Amino acid sequence: MSPYPQDPFAWTGAALEDRRDAGLLRTLRPRPADSPLLDLAGNDYLGLSRHPEVTGAAAEAARRWGAGSGGSRLVTGSTELHAELEAELAAFCGFEAALVFSSGYAANLAAVTALSGHDGLIVSDAGNHASLIDGCRLSRARTAVAAHADPEAVRKELAARTGEGPALAVTDSVFSVDGDAAPLAALAAACRATGAGLLIDDAHGLGVLGDGGRGAPHAAGLAGDRGTVVTVTLSKALGSQGGAVLGPAPVIAHLLNTARTFIFDTGLAPAAVGGALAALRLLRREPERPARVRAVATGLYERLTAAGLEAARPDAAVVSVRAPSPEAAVGWAADCRASGVVAGCFRPPSVPDGISRLRLTARADLTEDQLTKAAGTVIATAPAARP
Ligand code: PMP
């Protein structure tokens, strides 16, 4: 083969250099199976991803149904296991029906695009997750970005709507960067008053909030609400992989018929379905796990703020701690890691408000000793504590 006279992708190298110069280069850090590090950056909130019942069910599902689902859901990729998970997930969270997707990301793209239209209006919270934002873009609906956690701003945008298309308000239930909760009941009231639908991404609420971990919409009295649709991920509290949309049966049937990330995507792998189903059954049997993860988050917050660090009281499992500058945040996270604790680091441009922070996540299986070590490490390495 003749060499290219000119490398058509040379510009990617230049773009990478720019990123490196700005201190923003992202790289992968493969985790060994037996890492000695204490993980406060992942989303395995209930500590179920390595629970023997969950891993055993995942392995058994792969043996019984195959390593992959073998096709898209509407062709050959739907197993009886998928149907079981959909029925149990819907019943647990209090909704009529559910549809499983290959990720929470795909579930969000599906829900936003299928429940809006090019002639419609979407009102989206300024702090929403990237997958909801991408859903808005793909929908080709007019999207109004409302001030963060401001139901009155959402009501005004919805009330001022012109045109005949569907209206939809979209929000995370628990915002992924700061871990603060959305005012769901007030948002639902704003939607009801203006005839709009409400789409709630409960990725960080399922298994953490609500009675026995039934999620933030359940806690807000919205379970079974005809105007509410909920998306969840199977990859956080349920320790597996995949996503789902929950809501009234006709809405779910509409998604099955129209959502491109459902129709043109291979069905979720049986191991992931089996793992999520086992985790859901464990959660039903051990309803104290959600209370424990919330207590760990509060314990972490209390230790950090008692030491003078600036953190917001967590509404769920995420504890966000302010750093004085982007460089300080990066150095802080690196020092935590060197001391055996993995913390998330968020800084501009990944955060819309320009505030850098460490993002710590609580886990139900963290022991008191581990909690003390984690908090002690974050405090000891804090930028303000340096000479
Ligand atoms: N929504 C939110 C709020 C999330 O934090 C995430 C995961 N980071 C997703 C959706 C996407 O879920 P998944 O990882 O299952 O694709």
List the helices and strands and how they pair.
Elements: H1 10-21, E1 38-40, H2 52-65, H3 80-93, E2 97-101, H4 104-114, E3 121-125, H5 130-139, E4 142-146, H6 151-159, E5 167-172, H7 184-194, E6 197-201, H8 216-219, E7 228-233, E8 243-247, H9 249-258, H10 260-263, H11 270-285, H12 288-306, E9 318-322, H13 326-338, E10 341-346, E11 357-361, H14 368-380
Parallel strand pairs: 1-10, 3-4, 3-5, 5-6, 6-7
Antiparallel strand pairs: 2-8, 7-8, 9-11, 10-11
The structure holds 4'-deoxy-4'-aminopyridoxal-5'-phosphate (PMP).
- Uncertain runs are none
Number of helices: 14
Profile the largest sheet: 7 strands, mixed
CATH architecture of the largest domain: 3-Layer(aba) Sandwich
Bound heterogens, unique: 4'-deoxy-4'-aminopyridoxal-5'-phosphate
Helix/strand class = alpha/beta
Separation of the first and last Cα atoms: 59 Å
Mean pLDDT, all residues: 95
User: Class of the largest domain in CATH?
Assistant: Alpha Beta
Family: Belongs to the class-II pyridoxal-phosphate-dependent aminotransferase family. BioF subfamily.
Subunit structure: Homodimer.
Protein name: 8-amino-7-oxononanoate synthase
Pathway: Cofactor biosynthesis; biotin biosynthesis
